[in-house]
Write a structure and sequence with these properties.
- The relative contact order is 0.23.
- The protein is built from 9 helices and no strands.
- The chain starts with a helix and ends with a helix.
- It is mostly helical and 210 residues long.
- The protein has one domain.
Length: 210
């Protein structure tokens, strides 16, 4: 188990990293604008679950496969980018078809699955963990795998908190837009374009990331 001062230092570093908007933040923001805070929080939980998968993979050494294989990295990365673009196309095609207040009983679950896929489709998370966690591992503080799991839980918790802030904020913004149909139509188009832009950004950034 890492020492208390190590955990505090790691938490501060994680907070600084999380402040910078990334794919999960933008996804949660878009889900909040589309379907409200509940669906956005579910999406945030999906992103957190995906991050935890990479934490466990890092702890047992599986994440090293992504770092050593350009083919595996490219497959995962571009599959994630394609999925984001597909969400954007779906959002644009569905413009005006969804009632402002009808998110559907399965919307949170659907958002959770989308968040999970998007996070797993971002292998840079695994590479980031492989680079960051060893800086805070103390050989004399117990098994390295256990320390990685503890550090990972802290990082994911901070990330989940940040995503929830995006979820509640975008959900309140959506509530405002539901009272103004013209703003809602613009929001629907913006959501689709945001997904497409995020997918394009992910694809381009993957060209020189490994």
């Amino acid at each position: 188990m890492p020492a208390a001062h190590t955990l505090l230092a790691f938490a501060l570093v994680a907070a600084v990293v999380v402040v910078v908007p990334g794919p999960s933040n933008l996804f949660v923001l878009t889900r909040g604008l589309q379907s409200g805070s509940r669906a956005a929080v579910a999406g945030a939980a999906g992103c957190a679950t995906g991050a935890l998968v990479y934490v466990v993979a890092t702890a047992v050494g599986l994440a090293a496969l992504l770092a050593s294989s350009s083919v595996v990295f490219a497959i995962v990365h571009y599959a994630g980018a394609a999925y984001l673009c597909w969400l954007g196309i779906q959002a644009l095609r569905a413009r005006g078809l969804e009632s402002p207040t009808a998110t559907g009983p399965r919307s949170p679950w659907r958002s959770y699955r989308q968040g999970l896929v998007i996070e797993l489709g971002n292998p840079k998370v695994a590479l980031f963990f492989l680079a960051l966690f060893p800086q805070f591992i103390d050989p004399g503080a117990g098994p390295a795998a256990v320390q990685v799991l503890v550090l990972g839980a802290i990082f994911v918790s901070i990330g989940m908190t940040s995503d929830c802030l995006y979820a509640f904020g975008s959900g309140r913004l959506r509530a405002l837009m539901t009272r103004r149909p013209r703003l809602r139509r613009r929001q629907e188009r913006a959501s689709g374009l945001l997904y497409l832009g995020l997918g394009g950004w992910a694809a381009v950034s993957g060209a020189d990331s490994h």
